[in-house]
């Protein structure tokens, strides 16, 4: 029963992230030249994480991101069965969130300024798969490294952890939106890509592989940095 509650929390959290994050992008646009919609979208994603951290964080840890769950798994913070349950719940939540956005924007009275449900793409890096992968790996590495560090027992950040994580997500969005739309979250990419179709689907693998690689690297690096030297043998 406890696992079911965690999965439901992850479903809700990811759904809300897509509705508020991608929904803001759809409404205001993400043109880095104009700036306003760009910054609003970055803060929408970051502030949603803050809200969800204090809402469902005590239930599931508020991963709402398969990359974060992978980092936690590698760090020894969850079982494989829970990891699978989390990822399925997160993907379903993202699909549900995009479905709600489709209902809102299908009336014709509200225009989707992104042209594709806020889906990620490689347009900002001129279609370069290599550049897109580097962006997603690096940004996810920074994000997940922050999460693992902030939530570690040694950190002692207490109730400020959600704020730190949320503002870090805002920061990586400020750099990444103009490059790849900033995924750092495979579930957030999968939902919009399914509804947008076309290039969003064909490029989707970049926004699955990149974040997962970045998260795995973050977990391994943090393990190395936080490991204590073995006591010397006498």
Short description:
By secondary structure, this protein is an all-alpha fold. It has helices at residues 2-28, 36-55, 57-60, 66-74, 80-105, 129-151, 161-180, 186-196, 199-202, 206-226. Helices cover 71% and strands 0% of the residues.
Task: Note down, in words, how this protein is organized.
The chain contains ten helices and no strands. The mean pLDDT is about 95. The longest helix is centred in the first third of the chain and has 27 residues. With about 230 residues, the chain is an all-alpha fold. The relative contact order is 0.18.
Write the layout of secondary structure elements.
Elements: H1 2-28, H2 36-55, H3 57-60, H4 66-74, H5 80-105, H6 129-151, H7 161-180, H8 186-196, H9 199-202, H10 206-226
Helix pairs in contact: 1-2, 1-5, 1-8, 2-7, 4-5, 4-6, 4-10, 5-8, 6-7, 6-10, 8-10
How many helical elements? 10
Order of helices and strands: HHHHHHHHHH
Mean pLDDT level: 93
Helix content range: over 70%
Reported for the largest beta sheet, the result is: none
Shape: globular
Main attributes of the structure:
0% strand, 10 helices, single chain, 234 residues, globular, mainly alpha
């Amino acid at each position: 029963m406890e696992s079911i509650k965690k999965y439901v929390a992850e479903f809700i959290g990811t759904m809300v992230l897509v509705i508020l994050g991608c929904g803001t992008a759809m409404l205001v646009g993400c043109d880095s030249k104009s700036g306003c919609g760009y910054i609003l979208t970055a803060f929408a994603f970051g502030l949603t994480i803050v809200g969800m951290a204090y809402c469902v964080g005590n239930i599931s840890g508020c991963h709402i991101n398969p990359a974060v769950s992978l980092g936690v798994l590698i760090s020894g913070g969850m079982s494989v069965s829970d990891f699978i349950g989390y990822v399925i719940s997160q993907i379903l939540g993202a699909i549900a969130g995009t479905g709600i956005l489709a209902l809102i924007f299908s009336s014709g009275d509200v225009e989707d300024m992104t042209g594709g449900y806020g889906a990620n793409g490689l347009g900002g890096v001129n279609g370069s798969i290599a550049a897109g992968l580097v962006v997603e790996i690096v940004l996810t590495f920074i994000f997940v490294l922050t999460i693992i560090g902030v939530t570690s027992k040694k950190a002692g950040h207490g109730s400020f952890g959600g704020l730190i994580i949320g503002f870090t997500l805002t920061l990586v969005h400020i750099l990444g939106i103009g490059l790849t739309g900033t995924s750092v979250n495979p579930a957030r990419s999968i939902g919009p890509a399914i509804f947008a179709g076309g290039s969003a689907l064909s490029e989707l693998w970049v926004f699955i592989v990149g974040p997962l690689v970045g998260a795995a690297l973050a977990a391994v690096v943090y393990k190395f940095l936080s490991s204590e030297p073995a006591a010397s043998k006498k």
